[in-house]
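Q: What would this chain look like folded?
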Amino acid sequence: MAQIESLRTGQKFKKTEAGEIPVEWEVMSLGEASKEMYRYPTYYNIKYVEKGIPEVRGELIKPNGTLETDMSLYRFISQETATQFSRTRLQEGDFVISVRGTMGEVGIVPKELDGANMTANLIRISPDRNKIYPLWLQQVFISERFQEQLDKASSSTTIKTIKAPELESLKLGVPTIIEQKKIAEILLTVDSAIEKSSQLIDKKKELKKGLMQELLSCGIGHKKFYKTEIGEIPEGWEVVRLGKYIKILPGFPFDSEFFSDTEKGFPLIRIRDLERSYTETYYTGEYDSDFIVEKNDLLIGMDGDFYVVLWKGEPGLLNQRICKIDSINSQLDSGYLYHCLIGKIKKIQDSTPSTTVKHLSTKDIENIKLALPSLREQKRISEILSSMDTGIDNEIQEKSKLGLLKKGLMQVLLTGKVRV
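A: My prediction, written as structure tokens:
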């Protein structure tokens, strides 16, 4: 990221409708920066075809301001149908922006989708290439500052909506094309690093998933196997019912009257906190110490997504619809149990009909059957998988740092506080 070393602090600013910007920058409405802005068509009873013109929908917009390029996720309309709606045909470098419901999601059209058509609840924005470098505008669109402008300009009805005239009137602080390109180059360099980190995380997770399946069913170095009710397992292993080896502590329904969003109480661990391992709710009432969760306690969410986690946050209180699992048998390693439960709980979740509210009971957990090797082998398996978890966690932290770097750069580059 050598480009970052060339940054310099701007000195002269002016107050404008677009906020405080460098004196050399121009104030321009989004309408003035665009050759055309066109809202989606109203069409019904469209017949989709196996191959044809891709149809861009709002759910295909990614958070980083791009569109999905996996064509298996797209629906296709015929060339004849697409011709009827020529003004919604997209060109490379155009933008689609969602203007209703999940308002403000923006995606730049890549080369792969040149000629695609957009569907309902989107507006096509074609930037004026003589004034605007599309990749710079992409960064502006996903910035907090622009999203705040968009929110203020939208109608305050139940469903958030913004109309084309309101969108056209939004003001931008616009540098020269040359500076736009330099800003975009820097921000896209960080984006590329974030994307590579995401890909590495996905690869490591996939590798761990395959290794976990191998280790939990075949163990380490075994040659002989025998059939059991849960499949073939190595000789020397046994099948056990989990209820005989663990104690389950269901969470407590704490009184919401004592919930607080300040740090004056004790952290309250709710289902939504499990995946991220930190809390935003605090409890200011009295509580029983039995419900305190410590770091590395094994927790399972019992509604919705059945998260299985080793708690990594600060000590907190176990709220309802979560349970804590304690091993009560010296022959069961807690790390091995954690990795076993990830797959076992997912099978229970997947077997729950999608039309039913997903709920996990303590009986469901107690009735789980495990293939149990010796304690020594359990610990070895746990060490291998835990080391992979550490590698994944480290990469996630690196990605988080890159995200903070990108956020900081956007705040100063897109406002001209730091110049290139």
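The helical segments are 79-84, 134-142, 144-153, 164-168, 177-218, 334-351, 362-366, 375-413.
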